[in-house]
Amino acid sequence: MAQHQHSPQRPRDQENTRPHDQYGDVSSVYGDDVARKQGVSFSQSDPTVATMGSVDTVTIGEALEATALSLGDKPVDRKDAAAIQAAETRATGECKGRPGGLAVAAQAAAATNEQTVSGEEKVTIADILTDAAEKLPGDKVVTCEDAEAVVGAELGSSSEMKTTPGGVADSMSAGARLNQQI
What we know:
Structural class: mainly alpha
Order of helices and strands: HEEHHHHHHH
Strand order of the largest sheet: 1-2
Mean pLDDT: 77
Distance between the termini: 15 Å
Number of strands: 2
């Protein structure tokens, strides 16, 4: 397994937030936007080549943290909870959510949010996924297989059969694409 060093924690970057629609969804976030929020820069000469300073790969925990940055104010729903559970399973190798883990917290948040009327009192993506890499008992580099599993989980929990733009599946897919280029 690849060794990975975590970079120092950065405060939320307010100037990189995107406008949200009436439901709290990000109106336009793409894989490159998520990658930039993860500290990835693209060279001017070749926009497909990514460099990450001293970090060579993107982990599942970092992809989850990117979701907190790109979509942090969105209330957690069952689709998010399913994607977070799949990501945690892929990162740890544990099939069952562990007490106090991200998946259990996300599932509880989704259930609570369904019963909560006030948008201000709902549990958000940022509440669950901020510092996700530190909260996971194990972490690993995102692969295409990991991203596919998370996309499948998110789609399977969606009545519209769509993933959330800038959500967990998008962040995992962006991380997997970046890792393929390295």
